[in-house]
């Protein structure tokens, strides 16, 4: 059982590592695109005295896309906002058990986000909801970031839960062998 879980964890870490790499490449590209839109909007407003509505609408959409895309990446790397005053006072085993519980909650939460995001994306697709600019972009395209972000968060929290479970199982087995 432990060997199978170790293999599953190694495979999940490799898969999530690839997704992390893609997200870490996509995010700076999107932020560069935001900069390009804002800079072009400022320059056209200053030089030509004309404003493009789509250049004002797309940067917040892209920023939202990037934020949702990084849900799982930040959670896995522990670079998200967290409160550690309880876990800092615990021993290693209780800390892992608390982490396991938190990961279970994050799995449930990301599942709920995923369900809602898929519903939102489908409703945007079915209704044909479009952006309100010169470039009429289907809004379901922008809502895919929430689906992708929820999937990444789900996969990363599953990886962390499996790692905590393996640690708890292996540490229990090591203690039993010492006694």
What's this model, at a glance?
This protein has 179 residues and is mainly alpha-helical. The chain contains five helices and no strands.
SSE arrangement:
Layout: H1 2-47, H2 53-69, H3 71-76, H4 92-127, H5 139-178
Overview of the structural elements:
The chain has 179 residues and is mainly α. It has one domain (2-178). Helices cover 81% and strands 0% of the residues. The protein has five helices and no strands. The chain has helices spanning 2-47, 53-69, 71-76, 92-127, 139-178. The chain is elongated and about 70 Å long. The model has no long low-confidence stretch (mean pLDDT 80).
Low-confidence stretches: none
Oligomeric form of this entry?
single chain
- Count of helical stretches: 5
Structural class: mainly alpha
Mean pLDDT: 80
Determine the fraction of residues in helical runs and give it as a percent range: over 70%
Strand content: under 5%
Q: Give the biggest beta sheet.
A: none
Count of discrete structural domains: 1
Alpha-carbon Rg, integer: 21 Å
Distance between the termini: 22 Å
Write the H/E string, N to C. Answer: HHHHH
Overall geometry comes to elongated
Tally of strands: 0
What are the key terms here?
81% helix; mainly alpha; 179 residues
């Amino acid at each position: 059982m432990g060997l199978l879980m170790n293999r599953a964890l190694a495979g999940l870490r490799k898969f999530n590592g690839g997704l992390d790499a893609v997200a870490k490449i996509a995010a700076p590209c999107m932020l560069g695109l935001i900069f390009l839109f804002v800079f072009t909007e400022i320059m056209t407003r200053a030089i030509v005295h004309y404003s493009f509505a789509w250049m004002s609408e797309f940067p917040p959409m892209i920023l939202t896309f990037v934020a949702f895309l990084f849900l799982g990446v930040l959670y896995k790397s522990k670079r998200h906002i967290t409160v550690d005053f309880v876990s800092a006072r615990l021993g290693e085993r209780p800390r892992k058990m608390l982490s396991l519980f938190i990961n279970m909650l994050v799995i449930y939460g990301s599942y709920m986000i995923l369900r809602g995001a898929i519903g939102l994306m489908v409703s945007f697709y079915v209704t044909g909801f479009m952006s309100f600019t010169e470039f009429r972009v289907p809004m379901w395209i922008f809502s895919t970031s929430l689906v992708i972000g929820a999937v990444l968060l789900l996969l990363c929290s599953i990886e962390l839960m499996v790692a905590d479970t393996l640690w708890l199982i292996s540490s229990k087995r090591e203690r039993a062998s010492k006694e």
